[in-house]
Amino acid sequence: MATLVLGAAGAAIGAGFGGSVLGLSGAVIGRAVGATLGRAIDQRLLGQGSQSVETGRVERLRLASASEGEAVGRLWGRMRVAGQVIWATRFFETKAVQKSGKGAPSATTTSYSYSVSLALALCEGEILRVGRIWADGTEIARDRLNLRVYHGSEDQLADPKIAAVEGEAPAYRGIAYVVIEDLELSPYGNRVPQFSFEVVRAAQGEALEAAPDLAAGVRAVALIPGTGEYALATTPVYLEGDAGETVAVNQNAPGGGTDFALSLERLEEELPACAAVSLVVCWFGSDLRCASCAVVPKVTAADVEGANMPWRVAGQTRASAALVPRDGDARSIYGGTPADAAVLEAIAALKAAGKAVTFYPFILMDQVAGNGLFDPWSEAADQPALPWRGRITLDVAPGRDGSPDGTAEAATQVAAFFGAAQASDFAVVDGEVVYSGPEDWGMRRFILHYAHLCALAGGVEAFCIGTEMVALTQIRGPANSFPAVAEFIALASEVRAVLGPDCKLGYAADWSEYSGYAPGNGDRFFHLDPLWADANIDFVGIDNYLPLSDWRDGEDHLDAGWGAIYNLDYLQANIEGGEYYDWYYAAPEHRAAQIRTPITDGDHGEPWIWRAKDLRSFWEQEHFERVGGVRASAPTAWQPRSKPIWFTEMGCAAVDKGTNQPNKFLDPKSSESALPWFSDGRRDELIQMQYLRAMLDYWQGARNPVSDVYGGQMLDLGRAHVWAWDARPWPQFPALRALWSDGDNYARGHWISGRAVAQPLANVVREICASAGVRAVDTRGLYGLVRGFTMSGGQTGRAGLQALMLGCSFEALERGGALVFQTRDGRIAARLDPATLALGESEAAVETRRAASAEIAGRVRLAYVSAEGDFEAAAVEAVFPDEAGGAAAGQELPLALDRAQAQGLVERWLAEARVARDGVCFALPPSLGDLGAGDVVALDLPEGARRYRIDRVEQGEFAQVEAVRVEPGLYRPADEVEDPPRLAAFAAPVPVTPVFLDLPLMRGDEDPYAPHLAVSAVPWPGTVAVWSSDEDAGYSLNATLAGRAVIGRTLSPLVRARPGLWDRGAPLRLRLATGALEAVHEKRVLNGANLMAIGDGSAENWELIQFATAVAVPDAPRVWEISLRLRGQLGSDALMPAFWPVGSRVVLLDAAPEQILLAPAARGLARHYRIGAAARPYDDPSFVPRVEAFSGVGLRPLSPCHLRAAALGAGWALTWLRRSRVDADSWAGHDVPLGESEELYRVRVLEGGALRREAFVRTSAWNYSAQMRGDDGITGPFVVTVAQVSDIFGPGLAAEIALGG
């Protein structure tokens, strides 16, 4: 720790600021931990002369505070905070009185609920968004709250609720806060829950670096993955199981919307400058040989279907579509093609969000290992697994023996790939695009289908007619023609006719393809120029993954002088410079040895035609082809500066040295998977950020020339689409790896979703300094990324910087009156010869020291905030083997880290501490006065060459220096094993399965007018609400059901059996959605146990049965067999058919099914119902609508029994016994109660189903004479039915007898 005093600058940052590293010296941690063991790192660990270190604390409980005058904290990146209550109303009490109305005795219930409105301050400064919200530690959907977010701008207005209550209200400008209005407290035990919020904030202020962060710089993104049958739907899509259970396919996060909707919401708020989206939609290619390659939509399964959005694509149904191949674990290697309906919804949602939509059709090759397809690029019997579409070529690739390249056969094979579909073969029928052309699956059908679909969506801003078909476009026909280019030109004409003049059309060429084709013999073709020049093409699309670095480990490679691969100046110097511009590697061996060959063009003087990076010259110059070494006399059709360039893709993987080869990606399933040149494979999100910042900043201003033809810039940065933002919401993707297997690829992939709001470390440091009044700050050598960081309201700038220094490994120096922050890397600033050093206080030029072992910490623990998940407080520990039993020095950092980062950090601390126990003292002569605290010097000592970082300088006649030993390897990020982030389990609000049952009275005290409702759902929402209305509006709460009913379907038929006797027939097999059945003794059955309804699902057609035996079927989940049954119970025998078919609905009539409210006046009238989770509003998509009318079966008389017919001359004398629907079980009475106001029966005579006679009688007998039969014209068999009549219900169920046979 240098003892130089920083004066005013240091004092402004905070008490005790001073020296080389803000109190954090080279020792960092390790010495004299005794007084601070288990709490914080002692000042002696942090440098000579330092005061104690303040780093903040990790919030574990996240309790909201409400202290008057308490300072509001600050944050950067993404963090979870509790906030401070800054305003609240009194509790508001609501009294509700409900009468049961379900028979006698009636009951009246009075319930009380409470609500409150409150405001919570989140942080200082302007935020980007409030994301996830937790109440009492459980994440809740934002749409469950009446929430208003005030982002903390300097012009925000006062909240209207606060103003209405208080009369006058502050606007809290400069403070981000939320107002929750009318919060219902009953779900939280009638108290205010502890809220915490995911808050996203970027560094801000005038002191920031010139290059924008991603939140400010990204103006367009590519939306992937392009697969997932319902991944693009804004409507929740549900799959129904065969027993009635329901699964939400595209709701995997608690935000209240679909995955796509939540991802789009994050995109809007986290990348506010993003105004354009490239919507990727995939079909699947089958073969690298173009003539054999079918391009088709596929599904992942044929036996599951979206109940409310059946899969349809290009006229294909789920039953007719091919399946996506599966891997060795029987998992689909990709998701299926998005349903057309989902694509339409996505386009509509993007347009509603104000995004310019570019439709981006994408071919995924899905041949797996061992495919048996001849490889056109080699002699292999199999094509590579999951290859790149850019490798689609002839049956024998150009350049190989036997290739048809350059012949008419090549043109024929290309034509077969494109197919014969025409725009006129498509039409819109009932809101779907249908196809009636020839049965081929070529490129034309793929592209034209989506052109028509985009037209059906009301159009899109832009449309790509193809992407990265590199080898295909380079196929030559006769006379050096390029048949694929001609096909694309023809296709562009047809797409133009479909989408009209306002849609911008283009082709997305690979960076190796856009500027021409060099077969390797010295020729140069501008093969795409006819396409670029075509009148139907509006832009030159380039998927730009050109390298921005040629970095190696160590300090002796050719680019090492730039200091770090993260240096923006270095990366930008390679945008129009470096490899593919100034030089190239002629062979792999040259790359390994960094033998760089300059790019030249001999006598022609046009080196730009060989420079893939020279976009400027390509755009500004005429193009002259070279064939046979001869420069063409006439230029191609390209007109200089005639059309803008779009980066249809650009990006860099978050992997070590990703800028060496930004096009490389890791996916173990694909043969294309590879690391960039010289990468060690570590996760590195900083290099991804720096690549994007370099690219987005470089092309601003004068470097981006303006066309004199169309008046716009060469490169349209508004269409520089960063690859990629995911349509699946972060952090569910990548955390839910059992659902999305590509989540394993996220850590080192090209995704920016979930990462875009991370802040450049330099910007965070500069804002902290600026807030303390320090403007003279140099961060050019500071590289790092802050995912999330908080400072409490009372913390000084010194405390915040110390926490960042510990967590991000950098130092603070004073040089020339300015604060210089630089990343620690152990790089040598000077090599010192001990013989040239001055003699100071010691007689020796160099005095070596070693700290005592007792002063070295051998065990360190770090508490931090987990960055990927629910922001849990977590801890890691590192320990030397010889210190396993010792106590740990503890440290807390309010930094968001993943576990691998945190573990690497404590291991670095521990290793650095042990290395730093070796120190030296020496004196510098005036000639070396430029060296100061923080510089690393190399010394050749008797024990060997060592590096030391200057830690303390005392100025006098000589500069007396104390330095500690360092090793550059200490500062390389550790390659720790990464654990997948953990998220709390989430169950989407799925539609429940409601079954209405208008049943006879079972206990006798039910409301005879009201139906029962049985509800099941997987997962169970806890409480189900039933809302009702006489029209489809103005719903009111009818009932709530707390119990999940046992509902299922029959798997075997149930044949008719006599009521009143035990049915000992074959077991009835059932599949239940949930729950279980119980076997009981026959006596319990006779006492009413195990009552079950079986029917067709309509409200009234239910037979009631009972069963004694219930057996779970082995190895068949949720399948049961019931036997020893009683049939036709409670008068339902009259509804018993000849057999109940397979698929009949069954409902166990236990306590779960309950009656809803139905007024007597509403009997028989159709009413509207909405049934769903009580925690959701009734207009939620998960609510099930029903329109039902109920006749009140509880009022329905039972059918008479023992209907007999005795001969009466030539006629018949009919008699019967009545049954009663009420109080008929007692054996004590002389007869069953009448149950109705009078005894009345309706008798009908039917012949062939036609009514011949109807009579009403008041006794249980009726005669049908021969005369009456003759009068009725009956000569053959006939049927007599008898039904008891109710003055309220009318005739009940009828008994019948066949006569005259």
| Mean pLDDT across residues | 90
- Rounded to the nearest angstrom, the distance between the terminal CA atoms is 115 Å
Number of strands: 68
> How large is the share of residues in beta strands?
25-35%
- Per DSSP, the total helix count is 20
Kindly state the percentage of residues in helix: 10-25%
Low-confidence parts, pLDDT < 50 over ≥5 residues? 1-52, 100-105
Number of domains: 5
Provide the structure class: alpha+beta
Write down the overall geometry. globular
- Rg from alpha-carbon coordinates: 39 Å
Largest sheet: 9 strands, mixed
Pfam family, one: Rcc01698_C
InterPro entries: GH, GTA_TIM_dom, J_dom, Rcc01698_C
Protein name: Glycoside hydrolase TIM-barrel-like domain-containing protein
SSE order and pairing:
Elements: H1 8-13, E1 74-81, E2 84-88, E3 92-99, E4 108-124, E5 129-135, E6 138-140, E7 147-150, H2 160-166, E8 175-184, E9 195-201, H3 214-217, E10 220-224, E11 238-240, E12 246-248, H4 259-270, E13 276-285, E14 295-296, E15 298-299, E16 312-313, E17 316-317, E18 322-323, H5 340-352, E19 356-365, H6 408-418, E20 426-429, E21 432-435, H7 443-456, E22 462-467, H8 470-473, H9 483-499, E23 504-510, H10 529-533, E24 539-544, H11 568-573, E25 583-584, H12 588-593, E26 597-598, H13 615-620, E27 626-627, E28 630-631, E29 645-650, H14 685-698, E30 721-726, H15 732-735, E31 759-760, H16 761-771, E32 777-781, E33 785-786, E34 788-791, H17 797-808, E35 810-815, E36 818-823, E37 830-832, E38 846-850, E39 859-866, E40 873-879, E41 889-897, H18 899-915, E42 918-924, E43 936-941, E44 944-954, E45 959-966, E46 993-997, E47 1012-1016, E48 1024-1029, E49 1036-1041, E50 1047-1050, E51 1054-1055, E52 1062-1063, E53 1068-1072, H19 1082-1086, E54 1091-1095, E55 1102-1112, E56 1119-1129, E57 1139-1140, E58 1145-1148, E59 1154-1155, E60 1167-1173, E61 1184-1188, ...
Parallel strand pairs: 10-13, 10-30, 13-19, 15-18, 19-22, 22-23, 23-24, 24-29, 32-36, 37-43, 39-41
Antiparallel strand pairs: 1-9, 1-34, 2-4, 3-4, 4-8, 5-6, 5-9, 7-8, 11-12, 13-14, 16-17, 20-21, 25-26, 27-28, 31-33, 35-36, 38-42, 39-40, 42-45, 43-44, 44-45, 46-47, 47-59, 48-49, 48-60, 50-53, 50-58, 51-57, 52-56, 53-56, 54-55, 54-58, 55-56, 60-61, 62-63, 63-66, 64-65, 64-67, 67-68
Helix pairs in contact: 7-9, 16-17
